[in-house]
Amino acid sequence: MMTENTTSAPAATGPGAAIGPERPRGAEVVLDGVSHRYPLHHELDQGWVPWAIRRVSPAARARHEAEAAKGSSLHVLDDVALTIPSGQFVAVVGQSGCGKSTILRLLAGLEAPTRGSVVVDGERVTRPAPERAMAFQEATLLPWRTVRDNVALGPQARGRLAIDQRRIDAALEIVGLRDFAGAYPSTLSGGMAQRAALARALVNRPRLFLLDEPFGKLDALTRLGLQDEFSRLWASQAFTAILVTHDVDEALRLAERVVVLSERPAHVVADLEVPRLLAAAPASADYQDLKARILSLLGR
Ligand SMILES: Nc1ncnc2c1ncn2[C@@H]1O[C@H](COP(=O)(O)OP(=O)(O)O)[C@@H](O)[C@H]1O
Ligand SMILES: [Mg+2]
């Protein structure tokens, strides 16, 4: 488990220190005028038989015209601007399908924005990099590899497997999976699988942690436990964290700042600071007020 050494901020000793002897700084993130469109592929039947059918069937003709009238791209993000200082924990909330995951994909370097710039630590993001880690709703572990070998994927891909053994052990220790290093993913609970996925990211010493609803599918108790552990991890490892979620309580519980997105095409409609004491007092009027405000911005 992530325990005592991770509660006080800089981990000078213990497993946290093994991950980063010199404490890495969290990444600085700047999204400037970011718009994004996904190309759409039309299902237009161009052959002479469909053409002949359209001649005789008004319904087929109407369907064809509606399809042809659709834009050739899906406008997902519209002029998103966001500056995130080193080490901040930001939650991004928005309705399903508004473009939250797209923002993370742009930051991960899996997608290039149609317009605007995505800059991490002063450099434009053009491709994925291990210091920008991503965690998904599914743990996405390779089923034929043990937990340890899944965690070792990054170092192995970079030819550092022999050098990074201690770091792999430390990552397993931090997430409380030391005793399950030899287990296969199919034998793990959902929470344990997510821990393994976190360890796989941690071993690369991420400076930016991109979280795409990673706690969303867990049962309530496991979710609370893992949220707490991730919160301690953030405090000890000093990375910048961007958590995408549709769960406002999760956002308020974990983040220092909540960015609310509009419907698609998404832009930032509110950028709210979460006072430190608020997260610990979900029953307080202040917490409930802030939560109600965010929910109303989300149209709920
Ligand atoms: N590769 C893609 N090609 C076309 N459309 C996509 C692609 N990825 C996502 N979309 C669409 O873009 C919209 C935003 O997707 P996403 O960023 O995943 O939303 P969210 O994470 O907020 O639910 C959705 O309507 C989705 O169907
Ligand atoms: Mg999503």
From TrEMBL:
Pfam families: ABC_tran. Residues 1-21 have a biased composition (Low complexity). The keyword Translocase applies. GO terms for molecular function: ATP binding; ATP hydrolysis activity. It comes from the Bacteria. InterPro entries: AAA+_ATPase, ABC_transporter-like_ATP-bd, ABC_transporter-like_CS, ABC_transporter_ATP-bind, P-loop_NTPase. Residues 60-288 form the ABC transporter domain. Keywords: ATP-binding, Cell membrane, Membrane, Nucleotide-binding, Translocase, Transport. PROSITE patterns: ABC_TRANSPORTER_1 (PS00211), ABC_TRANSPORTER_2 (PS50893). This is ABC transporter ATP-binding protein. It comes from Actinomyces gaoshouyii. Residues 1-23 are annotated as: Disordered.
